[in-house]
Amino acid sequence: MDPAKWDYLAMDIHRLAGDDVQAAASARSALRDNLAPDGTELSPMRIAECRLTLAFVAGRAGDLEEAVRLGIEGLKDGRQSKVHLRMVARELHHQLQQQYPAAEAATTDLAEAIRAI
Residue 39: pLDDT band by 50, 70, 90 thresholds? Predict the structure, then answer.
């Protein structure tokens, strides 16, 4: 395994396991590793997935608005692996629908962003 991908890969494992503290820590570390000092995204796909992971964490913590914002942000700018991002974003959308059944209107923008990629 490429050691430079450790936090990125660990992030998915922790997200899927529901370990939000470790998922968020790994996502933030991977974000730092993939941003140049001037803010340029060095690895847009990894950054997109980090944002989606942070969206899961926000949603699970009760912050629906931040979850939707991060989810949409993770899907913008024409990423390369749209199939994978769409899959993760659909998981996020499903989680938010289950967790916030009365907030369908709040997740509409995320559903539209998923359809748009």
Answer: confident
